[in-house]
Amino acid sequence: MGKLKVVVDRIICEGIGPCAEETKYIELDRKHKAVILEPGKDKEKVMEEAQKLKRQEVILDLTPEEEEEIFRAAEACPVKAIFIYDPDTGEQLYP
């Protein structure tokens, strides 16, 4: 398993939604903004907390298949509101 830092810029996000179709880690909230779901945390609480943020940042520990899902989700975003970083080096991996 590998770690990725996934960031959703909720200002840029227009809530179009193809990102949420690519992975179980992203859903749209009531305002139709992308939210990164964190394993082991209450989904409703994460959704509520994310609504107060301009940028949601989460480090996820993922299988290779889940990593691919996250990259597909970021690539599917038509407004490029999802960013992916290496959490150890800070290197931006996408976009």
What's the quick description here?
This protein is an alpha+beta fold and 95 residues long. Helix content is 27%, strand content 31%.
Commentary on this structure:
The chain has 95 residues and is α+β, with helices and mostly antiparallel strands. The protein has one domain: 2-Layer Sandwich (Alpha-Beta Plaits), CATH 3.30.70.20. 27% of the residues lie in helices and 31% in strands. It contains three helices and six strands. The protein has a four-stranded antiparallel sheet with strand order 4-1-5-6, with helices on one face. The chain starts with a strand and ends with a strand.
Low-confidence regions = none
Helix content: 25-40%
- What string, H for helix and E for strand, traces the elements in order? EHEEHEHEE
Number of helices: 3
CATH fold description: Alpha-Beta Plaits
User: For the report, how would you describe the main beta sheet?
Assistant: 4 strands, antiparallel
Number of DSSP E strands: 6
List keywords for this structure.
single chain, 95 residues, alpha+beta, Alpha-Beta Plaits, 6 strands, 31% strand
Reconstruct the topology from this structure.
Elements: E1 2-9, H1 18-22, E2 26-28, E3 34-36, H2 43-50, E4 55-62, H3 64-76, E5 82-85, E6 92-94
Antiparallel strand pairs: 1-4, 1-5, 2-3, 5-6
